[in-house]
Amino acid sequence: MATRKTKSLYEFPAPIDNEKLVGHNEILSDFVAAWQNRDVHPLHPVWMLTGPRGIGKATLAYKIAKMVYGNVGDCFIVDMSANIDKDGKPWDGKQISVHTIRAMIEKMQMSSMSGEWRVVIIDSVDELSVPASNAMLKLLEEPPAKTLFLLVVHQLSNVLPTVRSRARVEKMRPLNMTQLRELCARFMPDTEISNEILKLSNGSFGQIANLVQSGGDEIYDELIDLIENKNATAGDIMSMANKIGAEPALYPIILNAVARYNLAELYPMATNAIADITRIYLEPTTAIFKIIQEIKKCL
Question: If you write DSSP's letter for every residue of 129-174 in order, what string do you get?
Answer without folding.
Answer: -HHHHHHHHHHHHSPPTTEEEEEEES-GGGS-HHHHTTSEEEEPPP
